[in-house]
Amino acid sequence: MSVSWNPWHGCRKLSEGCRHCYVYRQDAQHDKDSREVRRTAAFNLPVRRTRDGRYKVPPGEMVYTCFTSDFLVEEADAWRAEAWEMIRIRSDLRFFFITKRIDRLMQVLPPDWGGGYENLAVGCTVENQAMADYRLPLLLDAPLRHKLVICAPLLGPLDIARYLIPGIEEVSVGGESGNEARPCNYDWVLSIRRQCVAAEIPFVFHQTGARLVKDGRLYRIRRPYQHSQARKAGIDYKAKR
Question: Which of 26, 67, 205, 213 is most enclosed, with most CB atoms within 10 A?
């Protein structure tokens, strides 16, 4: 089972992968400014209790964290210590966030961090070779118990073989969604898969994106089918180790 937890909402665009951000698209439909980072009403969701004293989020849940912002965004620095504390307290939950700001992690860790919280996994997002070469060395050096690489939105071919070392638990790949989505070439996806297989790192093709190029043909895929079509490709890889 899983639950979404967005302690704050809004973010500043940082790199090329942010150009057509889905949060900006959704906010624009309601005349909201996504650049405004604000704490949400769900801020303390992990530690909320029922009338009989039990946690509202039961033990064992996967908590997808900060998917309408970036957990490491600068504008949330004032609130992050409290968020870290909730993650620490709820050691019976599994938390997961993705970030384009892995270069800020060491600046904002809590004092009791040590080698990282066992109940937290972090996915480092890379969209092109320049961002892979900048962010992935930082991910490899980061004191995290669980590290994932998120190649999304995939905007070009990636050579990440040198970063696929023990400690990387999964590589997940996806195209870009939205009416202005840039094409994702299936050959790029397969290349990343081959690199993962060679390194025995699990691989997931989680989303085709709105425009997928395969065998020289451009396929336009509607949003409701982008995840299911990726699954139908049948190229996910579970490492033997």
Answer: 205
Residue 239's pLDDT band (boundaries 50, 70, 90)?
confident
Which domains are assigned to the chain? 2-232 (3.20.20)
Residue 80, Cβ density class (10 Å: 0-12 exposed, 13-18 middle, ≥19 buried) = middle
Task: Burial-class residue 70 by CB neighbours within 10 Å (0-12, 13-18, 19+).
Answer: buried
Question: Secondary structure of the chain in the HEC alphabet?
Answer: CEEEECCEECCCCCCHHHCCCHHHHHHHCCCCCCCCCEECCCCCHHHCECCCCCECCCCCCEEEECCCCCCCCHHHHHHHHHHHHHHHHCCCCEEEEEECCHHHHHHCCCCCCCCCCCCEEEEEEECCHHHHHHHHHHHHHCCCCEEEEEECCCCCCCCCHHHCCCCEEEEEEECCCCCCCCCEEHHHHHHHHHHHHHHCCCEEEEECCCEEEECCEEEECCHHHHHHHHHHCCCCECCCC
Confidence of residue 240 (pLDDT cuts 50, 70, 90): confident
Q: Could you give the CA distance from residue 69 to residue 67 in angstroms, rounded to a whole number?
A: 6
